[in-house]
Amino acid sequence: MSLRNELERNGSWLFRHRSYLPVVAIPVFLACLPFFTYLGESHGLNEAWQFFCLGISFAGLAIRVLTVGRAPLGTSGRNTREQVANSLSTTGIYSVVRHPLYLGNYLIFLGMALWPHVWWLAVAASCLFALYYERIMLAEEAFLREKFGDAFETWAEATPAFIPRLRGWKPSSVSFCWRTVLQREYNAFLLILGVFFVFDLIGDSLAERQWHMSYVWFSLFLTGFVIFATLRTIKKRTRLLHVEGR
After folding, report:
1. Environment class of residue 70 by beta-carbon count within 10 Å: exposed (0-12), middle (13-18) or buried (19+)?
2. Higher per-residue pLDDT: 171 or 12
3. Of the candidates 85, 82, 65, 66, which has an alpha carbon nearest to the alpha carbon of residue 74?
4. How far apart are CA 63 and CA 53, in angstroms?
5. Does position 196 have pLDDT exceeding 90, yes or no?
6. 9 exposed, middle or buried (CB, 10 Å; 0-12, 13-18, 19+)?
7. pTM: predicted TM-score of the whole model, two decimal places
8. pLDDT digits (tens, 9 = 90+) for 131-149
9. Which of 20, 31, 69, 236 is deepest in the core (most CB within 10 A)?
């Protein structure tokens, strides 16, 4: 088997299990906790750094929102069993980067990795992400190449895989739909707030050598949980967030 075929086969397996990257990363995050102290020995400065990291993760969520909000039916999905693409998206955010959802995931992941302000953690997390998702992207592109042929090749030649090139922007051919975003992205929203709340709880307790919970972070997490529970209930019990063709 050629190296390319082997990498694509590995990518197909990782595609089916791509939701488990955070589990793989847990030991790496835990390894840095014994080194945690307040940034500059200042709780206030450390809080500012944490909100900066939160901003990076929310920037990743914003990219996911821009992508999902204009995704037609059968694209940009959460399917894990097999590749699905009813059409080739080449406008909107897909006109400047081929894998915007994974770019968004990386920024979410990077914001979390920067939180402990341990330089090697961000490097290790980035390397882990690259090894994990590079193969998934290879597998996805092999599927798209086989299904869409020259149309895919033309788009791929003009559009970067991961680092956006904004000068290539083409307006999206699909209108933005907030109901689709609310239906699909509430999990990521709660995950970000939950992880940062737990990080702050652990970090403050380690730095102060006693149990310490920030009511600011707890309030943010509680608000996120209420939004999550509300949207999940609406999605499961009604069709208010359902949009035909999305």
Report:
1. buried
2. 171
3. 85
4. 16
5. yes
6. middle
7. 0.88
8. 888 888 888 888 888 889 9
9. 69
Determine contact, residues 164/97, Cβ cutoff 8 Å. yes
Q: What are the structure tokens assigned to 80, written together?
A: 């894990």
Helix, strand and coil percent figures for the chain, each rounded to 5: 70, 0, 30
Write the pLDDT tens digit of every residue in 76-118: 555 545 555 667 888 999 999 999 999 999 999 999 999 988 8
Residue with tokens 């390319």, as numbered in its chain: 4
Alpha helices in 84-185 (DSSP H): 100-114, 119-148, 150-158, 178-184
Closest CA to 24 of 111, 127, 116, 150: 127
Predicted confidence band of residue 172 (pLDDT cuts 50, 70, 90): confident
